Amino acid sequence: MLHQPKAVWATAGAAVVAFMGIGLVDPILPSIAKGLNATPGQVSLLFTSYFLVTAVAMLVTGFVSSRIGGKKTLLAGLALVVLFAALAGTSHSVGELVGFRAGWGLGNALFVSTSLAVIVGAASGGSEAAILLYESALGLGMACGPLLGAVLGNMKWRYPFFGTATLMAVGFVAITFLLKEQPKASRKVGLAEPLRALGHKGLASTAASAFFYNYAFFTVLAFSPFVLDMSPYRSGGVFFAWGLLLAVCSVLVAPRLQDRFGSLRVLGASLTLLAADLLLLGYGSHTAAVVATILSGAFIGMNNTVYTELALEISDAPRPVASAGYNFVRWFAAAAAPFLAPKLADHVNIHMPFVVAAGTALLAMLVVVAQRRHLRHDARELPAASAPASGGPSALADELAAR
C-alpha cells in the first residue's frame, strides 16, 4: 500500500482534506453561533445547505465525469472547495456562511465521487492496496476534521475555513502536475439514469432505510455539539474519538460480522443499538452523553459499510448509477436532520431531537425487516461457495465511492 506513485498520494491527500470538511465545523458550531450572533438552528443550516447540494449533485457527477474525464472533474471540485471555503471564512452573517457551504458541497461532491476511481486507476500493487489506501484516507479525514476545526477554531472560528482552502489549494497544484489525464468513460451517463435505477424494489428499499438512518446519523453530527456544550478542544477530542471508532468499525469490524452473521442481521442489530445509544445521548448525564456520542461512531461505521454493499449489490443497474440514486435519496435526510433538530429542541425540549432520531433509526430497521425478501441478494447473505464475484477493481471502486 505504501509504494504508490506520487499521483496516488496527491489524490489520497486531497481526499483526506475533503472528508475532513464534513466534520470540520462540529467543534466550532457554538463559536460560530457566538461570533455571528446566530441561534443553534441557524448555524446548523451549515450542514443542511452542504448536504442538500451534495444530494442533488449526485445526479450530476456521473454526467460530468463521463464527459470531461476524471482529472478535470477532480480539479473542478477542488477549485470550488478552495473558492467557497475561503469565502466562508470571510462571512459576516450566518446567511452568507450557509450559502458558501452550499457551494462547498457541490465541489466536494464532484471531488469525492471521482477520487476513488482515480486512485484505483493510478495505484500500483493491485486494487486491494488502492482500496485500503482510500479507506484510510476516509477514516483519517473523518477523524481529523473535528480535530483541525478545534485547533484552528480555538484561535478564531474563521481559521478552519481558511485552513481547508489552503490545504485544498495545495492538493489542486499537486494533482495538476502529478496526475496524468484519465481516460473518459466508455459511455456517457444520463442525468435521469440514477432516478430510473430506483425503480428496482431492492435498491428503493435500501435507499428508504438509509434515508431514515441518515437522519439519525446527522442528528448526532450536527446537534450533539450543542448538547455537549464543550470548548472547541474538548469537543474536537470527542469527535476525533468518534471518527476513529467509525473508521475501525467500518473497515475492520463490519466485514467480519457480516461474514459470520449476514448483512441484514448485522444491520438490524446495529440500527437497534444506535437507537438505544441516541436515547442515552438525549437523556443521560453529561458524561453519558459524551460516551454515547463516541460510541455512536461504532454503529455508524458498521451501518455505512452494510448499506453501501446492499446498495451496490442489490440491483442490476451499473454500480455508479445505483450509487448515485441511493446517495441522492439518503443525503436529503442529512440535510433535514440539522434543520429539524434545533426546531424540535426549541418547540418541545432538548431531549426530543434524539427521541425522533432514535425513532428514525428504528424505522430504518423496520424497513429492512419488512423488505428483507427484496434485500436477500447481497453477496454476504449467500454461502461463501456461491457468492458472486466482486467485479474487479472498478466494482470495488464504485462500492467505496458510495460511502
Characterise this structure.
The chain is an all-alpha fold. Helix content is 79%, strand content 0%. It has one domain: MFS general substrate transporter like domains (Growth Hormone, Chain: A, Up-down Bundle). α4 (70-89) runs antiparallel to α7, α5 packs antiparallel against α6 and α9 runs parallel beside α13 (319-347). The two termini are 21 Å apart. The relative contact order is 0.15. Residues 382-403 have low confidence and may be disordered.
Q: Helical segment tally?
A: 15
Structural class: mainly alpha
Distance between the termini: 21 Å
Shape: globular
SSE string, helix = H, strand = E?
A: HHHHHHHHHHHHHHH
Q: Which CATH architecture is right? A: Up-down Bundle
Mean pLDDT: 82
Strand content: under 5%
**Number of structural units classed as domains:** 1
Observed structural traits:
Growth Hormone, Chain: A; 403 residues; mainly alpha; single chain
Question: In brief, what are we looking at here?
Answer:
The chain has 403 residues and is mostly helical.
Describe the secondary-structure layout.
Blueprint: H1 6-23, H2 29-35, H3 40-68, H4 70-89, H5 94-122, H6 127-153, H7 159-178, H8 193-197, H9 201-228, H10 232-261, H11 263-283, H12 286-313, H13 319-347, H14 352-370, H15 392-401
Helix pairs in contact: 1-5, 1-6, 1-7, 2-3, 3-4, 3-5, 3-13, 4-5, 4-7, 5-6, 5-15, 6-7, 6-10, 6-15, 9-11, 9-12, 9-13, 9-14, 10-11, 10-12, 11-12, 11-14, 12-13, 13-14
